[in-house]
Amino acid sequence: MTLTTLDWTIILAFMAVSLVIGVIFTKRASSSLSEFFLSGRSMPWWLAGTSMVATTFSSDTPLYITSLIRTKGIYENWQWWCFLLSGMLSVFFFARLWRRAGVVTDVELTEMRYSGKEAAALRGFRAIYFSVAIHTIIKAQIILAMAKIMGVFFDVGKWQAIAISFAVTLFYAILSGYWGVILTDFFQFILAMIGAIALAWIAVTHAGGLSGLEAKVTTAYPAMHYTDFFPPVGGDLFGPAALTFIAYMGLSWWSKYSSDGGGVVVQRMSSCKDERHALLGTLFFNIANYAVRSWPWILAALASLILYPVVGGEDPDLIYPRMAQELMPSGLKGLMVAAFFAAFMSSMSTYLNLSSSYLINDFYKRFIVKDRADRHYVNASRLATLVLSLITAYVAYQATSIVGVFKFLIAFGSGTGLVYLVRWYWWRVNAWSEISAMLASTTISITLFQDAYKEMPYYEKLFLIISISTAIWVVVTFLTKPTDESKLIEFYKRAAPGGPGWKHIEAKVIEPHERGKSIAGDVVHFVLGTVMVYGYTLGLGKLLLGHSTEGIFFLIGAVVSTVLLYSGLTKRGWNKVYE
Predict the structure, then answer these.
(1) Are 104 and 37 in contact (CB under 8 A)?
(2) Helices (H), 77-157
(3) Which residues lie below 8 Å from residue 452, measured CB to CB, with a gap of 6+?
(4) Which DSSP symbol is given to 210?
(5) Angle at the Cα of 451 (from 448 to 456), degrees rounded to 5?
(6) Is the alpha carbon torsion for 216, 153, 4, 9 positive or negative?
(7) Does pLDDT of 446 surpass 70?
(8) What is the pLDDT at residue 320?
(9) How far is the C-alpha of 68 from the C-alpha of 64, rounded, in Å?
(10) Taking the CA of residue 273 as centre, how many other CA atoms within 13 Å lie in the half-sphere pointing to its CB?
(11) How many other β-carbons are positioned within 10 Å of the β-carbon of residue 363?
């Protein structure tokens, strides 16, 4: 079915609203770097949290999840569900620390935390590493998905799809900066969720309804494990599926480059009104990201197994947009295309803004052109956004598999996560620790993803990247000079991380009766928050697929954890900014 006049009206109306927001906030975004990259640090928690969710809900996400389920099953979602653990670390350990630090970007922290020329070199290196390497991979994955979607709906080539996808996003991201990103994120997330729920409802209905969906999938594919929530073990306890699951839950979440928040989340923490809003926004993000968003996509993917039987040589990335194109009626089809664009634009605009902030705030302004008016740097940021977009477009054209890109990204960023966690709680970590971790992780990742190692299981690659990189940075830490004590004292006064790793610095900063601040409460809240969100996620899924007893069990655990978490946070004092 082709798009009707009603469909095109809905699509164009969405584009028009995005463009209007870009124009409205151009003047405000141009006033300073703080406005262009952090909206003047005035963001309420609900808006910051919604923006975090919208950014991680991109055009590639439903295609990626559909591909996971059509190749392995529900249990393969632990590939991204595992990151709830690092998300909860961000909530209860790092949200308030990042807000106290008062950085524009997470890269800026390097010169607050470390001393010497190596700290400056690390800041410049990380600015290039994230803006040109990591973010280019992420954006390429997002664009690849949108190109596939547009190929299905509009029958256009890859280059044309990439150009069209960028057009409106670039316009408002360049003009309105972070304000445009945040405010469009809000209505784009709502639109994207409406589209996802509508397609799930229609797909499941066409597949015969929700009540018999699991049974139909199991009957159609008796040798597969498409509806299993956890990897099958059977007689092979340590088979590839189980070992990969262990790698996700035991290694991925704490070893990834975003283990203490990551650039997107840190940018939103830093833009919040205060520490309390930073914590609440990040908590809201994790609940919505895992417990709310997962199931419309998963149900649609399960329905696709009935409606579009798996065949050899298929591109599983194309099935989700095919369902939208072939099953949705006029009006809803236009809404779905607008939802795809909304998901794409919310993520792309964020990464364009953040990438340019690294390049301008942490490289250009720091090392190339210093002490110019903010207007100069805002204009430079707009130019950087355009240049980085062209680089990303080329990389996206070369990519083919969304899941393949995502798995490479997880591996590529592994090996650095632990040093980013430890630097907050152990004074001995220095700039050389981070430099060595990044170099080791990058080198080993690129090596292991060459054709010579294509038969090596993914979990083995993760283990080697993480273990070798970690061993290298720990050795380097003890072989190199510690950070100057004056810098450590300055950092502790600013962020006040606490914990036993700062005892000798703490003794020089605060009064004896105030020393020995425990992080035990943070650990308890981390555990409760993790149980809460996993309980809601798994409980809701079990109920939807007809497993009432298991669903109620998970939901009871989630509710109990919610009550205990709320009680604990209240006792610690919300009005004291969660200290």
Answers:
(1) yes
(2) 78-81, 84-89, 95-101, 109-113, 117-128, 135-154
(3) none
(4) S
(5) 55
(6) positive
(7) yes
(8) 92
(9) 6
(10) 10
(11) 20
What percentage of the chain carries pLDDT values higher than 70? 88
Are 173 and 349 in contact by the 8 Å Cβ rule? The answer is yes
> Is the Cβ–Cβ distance between 317 and 61 less than 8 Å?
no
- Of the ranges 15-29, 91-105, 191-205, 228-242, the best mean pLDDT one: 191-205
Q: For residue 272, list its beta bridge partners.
A: 43
> Which CATH number applies to 1-37+44-237+262-407?
1.20.1730.10
Residue 148's closest CA among 330, 324, 272? 324
Report pLDDT for 69: 94
Alpha helices of 207-286 — where are they, by DSSP H?
Answer: 213-220, 240-247, 253-255, 262-271, 275-286
Compute φ and ψ for 6, nearest 5 degrees: -65, -45
Contacts of 511 (CB under 8 A, 6+ apart): none
The pair of three-digit structure tokens given for residue 324, joined into one six-digit string:
């939208």
Query: In which residue are the tokens 């057009």 written?
Result: 167
The pTM assigned to this predicted structure is 0.85
H or E segment to which residue 390 belongs: helix 374-398
Domain residue ranges in the chain: 1-37+44-237+262-407
- Could you tell me how far CA 516 lies from the centroid of its own chain? 34
Looking at residue 114, its amino acid is Y
Report residue 272: phi and psi, to 5°.
-70, 160
